[in-house]
Amino acid sequence: MLLSNLLGERLREKPTDAKILSQIFLLRGGYIKYVSNGSYSMLLPCVRIKAKIENIIREEMNKIGGQEVLMPVVLPRELWDETGRYESVGAELLRLKDRGGKDMLLAMTHEEGAVHLVRDDVTSYGRFPFMLYQFQTKFRDEPRCKGGLIRVREFTMKDAYSFHTSQKDLEEYYNKCYAAYHDIFRRIGISETVAVASDTGMMGGKVAHEFMLLCDAGEDTICVCKDCNSYENIEVAKTEVKKNGGQERARAEEYTPDIETIDQISAHFGVKKSEIIKSAVFAAEGSDKTVIVFIRGDYEVNETKLKKVIKANIFPLEGKSADLEFGYIGPLGLKLENAVLVYDRSLEGEKNMIAGANKKNYHISGVSVERDLAGVVFDDVAKVNEGDKCLKCGGTYILQKGIEVGNIFQLGKKYTESMKMSYLDENGQSKTPVMGCYGIGVGRAIASVVEVRHDDFGPIWPYAIAPWHIHINLLSGGENMRKAAVTLYNKLLKNGYEVIMDDRKVSAGVQFNDADLLGVPYRVIFGAKNFENGLAELTTRDKRIKRLIPVNDVYKEVTAYIKSEVKGLSK
RNA sequence: CGGGGUGUAGCGCAGCUUGGUAGCGCACGUGGUUUGGGACCAUGGGGUCGGGAGUUCGAAUCUCUUCACCCCGACCA
């Protein structure tokens, strides 16, 4: 490839709307171009990286017995009606009609498609287990896109579906896939990716892991215990709340004008946040019930846990409500019809607490949970705080951000049952297979690599996924130098190396900056002064190597580096 | 959907308060001088000032309305 011919402009300044590093570099480097909310076109460098990542994934999927298929993006409604997801999935599912008025949808995941694909002909136990996978465009009408390729509406996903005759067999395969995922992420250059126990969300099923790249640009919070090396999504993480151990006191109502927030109460009464009973108000979807959660002042409500407790989708309520005095809600004497009250376990057994008095400008001190709230049921709806105790080993949790680049689910029979997939077992009995599914966001993986493999000037692509292997800079100079560079370029191409040459008549600074943005691992620089002495410069993007080499030896030297690199990859 | 913000050339921005010929830097075309970390001189092309309506002799600027996008919250690869 000649750089003079490459489509996609490299930008000197960062686009205003770009916020995170991978987004900035991918836009500035001419990898992607913004089209509309949550959708980007990809240019050649990005497409080449994408193809390489896909190939690595393909190899690893094939190694664990996967077979590649391709299902349609547009599916008929009937298929999703079989599982009920046409109705149950929210607005992120893009529904549309064809010319005949028939309901169609843009598949955002392919469990239905996969079951449909195999249910008619896999009818004997002898055909199990098997796994099929595809690389396919997914469209999810996200409420909010962000971060360039991190969160978009249209993206390529590798999605895989495995089918088994027993839960045990599924679990064994799940573990294989788990290991394959670690290999994939190591090979594409984000070995920092960890498997995190997670919530199953709309996919259903019991066991699930998210593969999270730990980095600050991540959108998820991971609860990490360094002592036992465990990782949990904060959505599911649990802890044992350390009790205050206060003394029981008599209750007293106190006039507290304009004291509403936890910080204000803490300052007014001179107590710790943990000595306050906080209330959080939510609305439940599909009902007019208000959900009020009482929780210790030093904890936040974990909405995922709360959803499970009240078995409904919720959203936070702020501001005013007709029958509630926000800022003064407390568990004592709360008279409310049509409300669900939830008490978090952080309150269990606490004494001498401050709570709202359920009337404006009043709080109550000396609230003792066991004495004053006898008989209430406690649920765990608290979000783990940094420094909390790890239940597995007694160690201390720290919180880190992570990008979810992949996930794996044990789905069980949710889809096979509803879609009436069955087979005959050894005894001629009709059985329902169990299923697992396994996803990786390819574009998100590209962005993830940039997040952790870059310097101030641009991405530093790992060799295995780099858009090209060698970048030749032909600086201004004589005709002989140009010929030498072109000769090298052609020889490398002819021998199967992936090479891009900057043949533009621009200043060295421009060439070097563009080369940094393209992030190609090996670079050969032809400059006039070195060339006069019969030399060219060989460097690496990561600055590991910087050598002057006789022009005639450049081919031998650079290909030697690459050969040893390739040897390292195959290990 | 709730809260905040921004829309002016491909990118980054000024102009708006106080209405009066649409500007700057980068990028792009041409000519020349340069040439190892984003060179310089000269010259040129590129705009429904997000859209619509209104006020006005006159609107990028004021009013109303609408759309798009960005940021903070609820969803996910």
Keywords:
571 residues, alpha+beta, BirA Bifunctional Protein, domain 2, YbaK protein, Rossmann fold, 15 helices, 33 strands, RNA-binding
How would you sum up the global shape? Answer: globular
The percent range for helix content is 25-40%
The CATH architecture assignment of the largest domain turns out to be 2-Layer Sandwich
- Briefly note the structural class of the backbone: alpha+beta
The CATH fourth-level homologous superfamily of the largest domain: Bira Bifunctional Protein, Domain 2
Strand content: 25-35%
What are the low-pLDDT stretches, counting only 5+ consecutive residues below 50?
none
State the CATH topology of the largest domain: BirA Bifunctional Protein, domain 2
How many discrete structural domains? 3
Rg estimate, integer Å: 29 Å
N-to-C span: 30 Å
In the CATH scheme, the class of the largest domain would be Alpha Beta
Largest sheet: 9 strands, mixed
Number of helices: 15
**Mean pLDDT reading:** 91
Count of strand segments: 33
